[in-house]
Amino acid sequence: MCYFFYMQQSQEFVNTANRWFDGLISKDIEITNEVFSVSSIDFDRQELRKLVRRVQTSQEQSQNVSEEEKAKIEAAVRSARKSLTRFLRSLAKQLTTEETFD
User: Fold this and answer.
1) How many domains does the chain have?
2) What is the mean pLDDT of each run of 10 residues along the chain (102 residues)?
3) Nearest to residue 30, comparing CAs of 40, 39, 19?
4) Is the pTM of this model over 0.90?
């Protein structure tokens, strides 16, 4: 029973992080407000803004590149997306854990 609860909780924070990721990258105001208004957990909002901008900028750059630059830009996009995903999953996991113990 405990394993099932852990797996359910684990999937919940991954789903939350994925929803946040999509919303932040697409500049969805509702999602952006939801993420930045999390007050029960202390997190670096400036770092989050930087990571979001990095993904958005690298994705924009990937649309206007020559074939020679494509691999380099795609690597930058992957790296930026990975960093933001890691940050959001950590935040969502802390939030899920916090809600569990309330």
Assistant:
1) 1
2) 54 92 97 94 96 94 80 90 96 78 48
3) 19
4) no
